[in-house]
Amino acid sequence: MTNANAAYGTTITRDGNAIAELTSIGGVEISMDAIDVTSHDSTAAYREFVGGLLDAGEVALAGNFYPGDTNGQAALLTDMETRATQDFVITLPSAMATTWTFSALVTKFKAGEAPHDDKVPFEATLKISGQPTLSITASTGLTSPYFVISESAVITPDPAGDTYTYVATVLTDVGSVTVTPTATSGTITVDGNTVATNEESSAITLGAAGSVTEITIVVTETNKTPKTYTVYLSRAAS
To answer: Cβ distance 60 to 93 under 8 Å?
Structure first.
């Protein structure tokens, strides 16, 4: 199953005001200078480098020119003419619960081109100044008692909301187990099947004696990234 998301619905705000009618919003691209520190002592005559300054690059905007967008498109021209650094926030589609926050100068503003057979376009370029901040909001995840596995499975370490990988064992004569998860918020799935909080999942068939079965528990809240818990359940050899 893919974790890809459609980009439709992404927005960018300038000083808290959404910039209207955009058809393309560039991403934040961070690069780092590599400083050459090669000397006569460098091993095997290979060049050596250390990390230098970081540069957050530019964000390109394109869309339909809308002169009535006084606090968005039109305000970018004012920012450029006054050399003002402004605050911007890119918000990805709600399913991704991700934002980029940064300060930037407007280094390009283009509007007024009028092709006879097409729309009037708008373009602008934002040069990021300083460090941008990537914010990802995660779901709360499992809550006490987190999860229980039937058939007296022994789970290591003890289940917890912020521990995401476990090893569990059952006796050799156990051919299937159920999982009872607990979460106060969000939708819970066990191996892709929705399970209500504090309710048993459907039976999960284990492999042959001596094998390991991977069980996945996912908790997803609306507009937040999911939390995934993985249990490697070992069925004892005969």
So the answer is: no
Average pLDDT over residues 148-171: 96
Q: CA 228, CA 161: separation in Å to the nearest integer?
A: 10
Segments of 11-57 assigned E as strands: 11-14, 17-18, 22-25, 31-36, 49-55
Tell me: the pLDDT tens digits for 197-231?
A: 999 999 999 999 999 999 999 998 887 888 999 99
Which tokens sit at 26?
Answer: 């560039």
- How far is residue 136 from each of residues 81, 91, 92, 173, 225, measured CA to CA in Å? 34, 10, 10, 44, 7
Contact 74, 67 (CB under 8 A): yes
**Terminal C-alpha separation, the chain:** 34
Enumerate helices (H) and strands (E) in the chain, giving the number of each: 1, 19
What are the sequence ranges of the domains in the chain?
11-136, 147-235
Q: Is the dihedral of CA 191, 195, 200, 202 positive or negative?
A: negative
Tokens 């191996």 belong to 191
The percent helix, strand, coil of the chain (3-state, each to 5) is 5, 45, 45
How many CA within 13 A on the CB side of residue 135? 12
Token reading at 28: 């934040």
Please report, rounded to a whole number, the percentage of residues in the chain having pLDDT higher than 70.
99
Look at the block and give the residue holding tokens 């521990």.
163
* CATH number of the 11-136 domain: 2.30.110
